[in-house]
User: What shape does this take?
Amino acid sequence: MKKLTLFLFIFFGPTGYSQEVPADAKEAIKAIYTEALGQQQGYQWLHHICTEIGPRPSGSEASNEAARYTMQMMLDAGADTAWLQPVEVPKWHRGDEWSKAYAGGAPISLPTTALGGSVPTPEEGVKAEVVEVGSFEELEALGEEGIKGKIVFYNTYMDHSLISTFNAYGGAVKYRWAGAMEAGKYGAVATVMRSVTLLRDDLPHTGAMSYGDSEVKVPSAAISWQAADKLSAMLEGGKVELELYLDCGVQGTATNYNMIADFKGSEKPEEIMLVGGHIDSWDLGQGAQDDGAGCAHAMQVPNLMRKTGYQNKRTVRVVLWANEEFGLDGAKEYARWAKENGVHHWVAMESDGGGDVPRGFGIGADDDRIEQVRTFKSLLSPYGLHVFAKGGGGADLSPLRGYDNFFIGYRPESQRYFDFHHSARDNIDAIHPRSLEMGAASMSALYYLLDNLD
Assistant: This one.
């Protein structure tokens, strides 16, 4: 009876699903990592995207150039089909931007960048007294009497005590998203905020903001960590005025493209194993960490399978989404098309956490499926993959929720990710080739194992 129980556990796994791991799984996984680290094809693709194409903001021709380039690379890698899916997106413009603080002496220039979606200042700029707040509760307590006619300075922080930097980001990013909308209710003429980062440097970090359905739209910017420290110290000494100039805004719409490439499965081609990242980036840097790395990871998954001689049973679909940063337009259009055409994603995985060394995966599925994936840990832990957490996916997979229900989010080391995120620091030199390729191999190894499930 004990032998029978053990047999059932190995064959069906702890969940009752058929769990057939190929006899040569260890050798196949080793080959995937060897190929990735030796050829470093993903890094070569990323290097081209960053250095030859550059920043890929919403509505830009650079985003389209990247879509065309990656489509050709997937065809060269053996894709059966690859095509560009048109998506209507906001066209973002960024021109000159600066701010100066006045406190009785010579003005102090503060590194400044407009938040994505902000309206511009008037041509002469905006100059007003600064009022500092550390929360929406403090803003509300000041009310119209303390806010009207002033520039609100959100001196808010990512919580450095949280080991998960993404949790810390989630706690601070609400001020970027809704800060101008909330301050506008009380008559503010503009807002500035401490950049959403953990790095105490002098580069500002941009990112999307929103006015919601408010008719009041005030200019909104981020200043660097060190600039925020200076401004806060100046305010301790008394009244401070800030002069802010932003030449920015959404200038209509444009057509960008999702890139979709299919590597057809030999046995179950109708079952789609989607893997993706977003092709757009903000305009301050080259978009290497966010999310050029995710694109390279996704492109490498079918490429590494083919290079190591593995024939995928299910169809591996690479999707590089347009405009994640500014509203998920590419993800929404892909989801609309997939539902309309009855596409079944057997599993969907996204990489949008940068290109640092791998730590594991987040798994969005029922408990049985999560436990099923966790049975692979013994095969993957030698490569640094120890996290198999409940809850996974990513922003670009969210429009598929409720339609498909097996999502995976790749999780690399994140302690330095927000040093680069949405800033001029996010360039190809922020990427270590081996770290990037370890991530690509990790995602490929997991998909190899999943593809062999009945």
